[in-house]
Every structure is written in structure tokens, then in C-alpha cells.
Amino acid sequence: MPLLVNGARVDLNRPTGDLVRAHPHLEEKAKLLRSQPAQIVEPKGLLYVQQREFAVTTPKDGSVSILGSDDATTCHIVVLRHTGSGATCLTHCDGSDTEAEVSLIMSSVKSFSNSSACGRLEVHLVGGFNDDRQLSQKLTNQLLRAFDLQPEDVHLVTFCVTELNDREEQDIHFPIIYGIAE
């Protein structure tokens, strides 16, 4: 099944800029996310996810209430949530084996979700910037394609990546958001 935005299949044969122009609410949501002030997360209940790691939790977990990661420059932080069960996975992707990683997080979230539970799979992508080597753009495209190849519908809800997460100072590009906690 496809990767969807507002119930419509994402056309991955077009540049990601076209995706944003076709769905302006994605840009508005990215703008809103970028405008939020950084917050310090206390360690109680926090499970920190490093690069090439992922973690899954549910609302019933008595130990973990927050998943978080940071230090993402060209990397992307991906949050996948089943809206019915509340099962949530956070991963810090660096492009090393994106397709396998997406398959793994999909199966992990599904394993924590009751197959008969109502709800849908929603994905939130954050990270990267307009780097000179275009590593961020490559990872953005890999993630979109990997989610589009999954057998279940996946709804793209947050898209604050690459050009939507870029700031420039003295002709040097930097990411705006380096980390998130969910």
C-alpha cells in the first residue's frame, strides 16, 4: 500500500518540492514545528535513541513515557505511531540501510498494536538540511520510497526535512531542528 498525504498517494516520481506545493499544510506544520522553542527533557521516563537505533513504546509502558533523539544534522528522526494502540517508534536514520530500517520499525509498531484495533499508521519525518553533498535530500527520498513500499497504508503527517528544516548564516546552511522527543 502507498504512502499517503490527506488520503492521496504521494507521487514519488516528482521532486519533494512538488510534494510540499501539492500539500501546503505540510509546510505550515513544519513552520509551526520550527517555531516551537527548544525544551529540556528530564531523564525520568526518557529513552534516548542514538544514530542507527530505534525504540518502541506504548501508553501502557510503566517505565518509558518519552522517546527522544538529537544530534541529527543530515540524519532524519522518524516517528511512526499507530493511532489506535498508541504504539510509537522513534528511530534516528542515517541512510545506512533505510529500506530495512523502515521495514523493521513497521513490524515493531505492528507487533505492539492489536491487529483488530482501529487506527492508522502515521509517520513524522524531521531532520536534515540543504547540505552541499545533498545527503539529506537523498535520505529524504529513501525514506519516502521505503514507506511507500510497505504493505500497509502509511500517512505522512509531519514533513520537516531538508529544505523545510534549513537555515542559512553567511552562506553556510544548518539544520533548524537537530532533535525531537515524543
Descriptive notes:
The chain has 182 residues and is an alpha/beta fold. The protein has 4 helices and 12 strands. The protein has helices at residues 16-22, 24-35, 98-111, 135-148, and strands spanning 3-5, 8-9, 46-48, 54-57, 66-69, 76-82, 88-93, 121-127, 154-161, 166-169, 172-175, 180-181. The strands form 3 sheets. A 7-stranded mixed beta sheet has the order 2-1-9-8-6-7-4, with helices on both faces. A 3-stranded mixed beta sheet has the order 3-5-12, with no helix packed on it. It is globular.
Low-pLDDT parts are none
Rounded mean pLDDT score: 94
The strands making up the biggest β-sheet line up spatially as: 2-1-9-8-6-7-4
Number of strands: 12
Biggest sheet, in brief?
7 strands, mixed
Q: SSE order, as H and E?
A: EEHHEEEEEHEHEEEE
Class from secondary-structure proportions? alpha/beta
Proportion of residues in β-strands: 25-35%
